[in-house]
Write a structure and sequence with these properties.
The protein has 3 helices and 3 strands. The chain has about 150 residues and is α+β, with helices and mostly antiparallel strands. Strands 1-2-3 form a 3-stranded antiparallel sheet.
Length: about 150
């Protein structure tokens, strides 16, 4: 009997996890929304950084898209992320490499979203799962205003 309880519990937890990571069941297919430009933001991560997505839907496809994560102080995560503001050199080489890999993944999220037109179909890239969560949250926020 305990095994059946555990199986049901695991099934519920898996379903809950899928709902959380897929925008809580919100439809995120661009083809289902009217033409226009959409902007949304994510919840802050543990360090206060927030992701902002902007995209344009025209003729049921995404024609433009961008996604930027910015620290709590507004500093964007870009090619300078992980560099010392005073020297322009990496503060920590390992952190700089991870930071730049995450930025590359964020660009890939935008590319995938533009290609498939559905944030739920954007694959998580290892090392950038927080960025993925923030990307999906920002898309859901952008689309929630049109419903």
């Amino acid at each position: 009997m305990r095994r059946a309880y555990t199986t049901r519990t695991l099934a519920f937890a898996a379903a809950l996890g899928i709902a959380v990571f897929s925008g809580c069941g919100q439809n995120m297919k661009a083809s289902d929304y009217p033409d226009g430009t959409y902007t949304g933001t994510s919840a802050p991560d543990d360090d206060g950084a927030v992701g902002t997505v902007t995209f344009t839907i025209k003729g049921n496809v995404i024609t433009e898209a961008s996604f930027v994560i910015a620290d709590a102080d507004g500093t964007p995560h870009d090619e300078n992320y992980g560099l010392s503001k005073s020297t322009g050199k990496p503060v920590d080489d390992a952190f700089y490499q991870r930071a730049q890999a995450a930025i590359a993944a964020e660009k890939e999220y935008v590319t995938q979203f533009t290609e498939v037109g559905d944030a739920d179909e954007v694959d998580i890239i290892a090392g950038a799962s927080v960025s993925h969560r923030q990307f999906v949250e920002a898309v859901a926020d952008a689309l929630s205003d049109s419903e």
